[in-house]
Amino acid sequence: MRGSSGDRTLEVQRVVGDAASYEEFVRARSGALYRTAYGLTGTRADAEDLLQVTLVKVYLSWGKVRRARSPEAYSRRVLVNAFLSGRRPGRFTREHLVAAPPEPRGAPPEADPSEALTLWPLVRALPPRQRAVIVLRYVNDLSEAEIADALGCAPGTVKSTASAALATLRSRMGEPS
């Protein structure tokens, strides 16, 4: 025998409440998540795709995500994991074939365009995990512990990965290590 009408009403109210809290979260935090996605991917279209994949995964687990200590940190980890798993060899990756280039939508979110012209190609050339550490540290201003949480590794791994990434960037810029 099925539950009473009151049980169904409570379930509908719970689902509607979950959807409303998810929508509120997306309105409040999607900009920050997009900036992280842009920092990781380097292109507007790939950042939008990565953000969309992340938001779908977060929505499908919203009950668990909203109970997390920090839904934003949980979502950032989903985003970084989606980025890293999409870069692994032998995995399906998005195709970038188009008949014509898309219309520009404005300048990407950058602090100093002249600095980005020099530094950004070097950051994009880093291996994905090193790039993720650099973006999370210097774009998102996260602590080593927060980066470790986002990447699912130890803080010492974050330190060594950041050190290697910075050494690579310095050498490619012609600076002494």
Task: Characterize this entry briefly.
The protein is an all-alpha fold. The chain has helices spanning 5-41, 44-60, 62-67, 71-86, 113-124, 128-139, 144-151, 155-172.
Can you give a write-up of this model?
The chain folds into two domains: 1-109, Rna Polymerase Sigma Factor, Chain: A; 111-177, Winged helix-like DNA-binding domain superfamily/Winged helix DNA-binding domain (Arc Repressor Mutant, subunit A). It has 177 residues and is mainly α. It is globular, with a radius of gyration of 19 Å. The longest helix has 37 residues, at 5-41. Helices cover 71% and strands 0% of the residues. It has eight helices and no strands. It has helices spanning 5-41, 44-60, 62-67, 71-86, 113-124, 128-139, 144-151, 155-172. The N and C termini lie far apart (72 Å).
Estimate what percentage of residues fall within beta strands.
under 5%
Number of domains: 2
Average of pLDDT: 81
Uncertain ranges: 89-93
What is the CATH level 1 assignment of the largest domain?
Mainly Alpha
Q: Roughly how much helix do the residues carry, as a percent range?
A: over 70%
Number of helix segments?
Answer: 8
**What is the CATH homologous superfamily assignment of the largest domain?**
RNA polymerase sigma factor, region 2, helix turn helix motif
Overall spatial form: globular
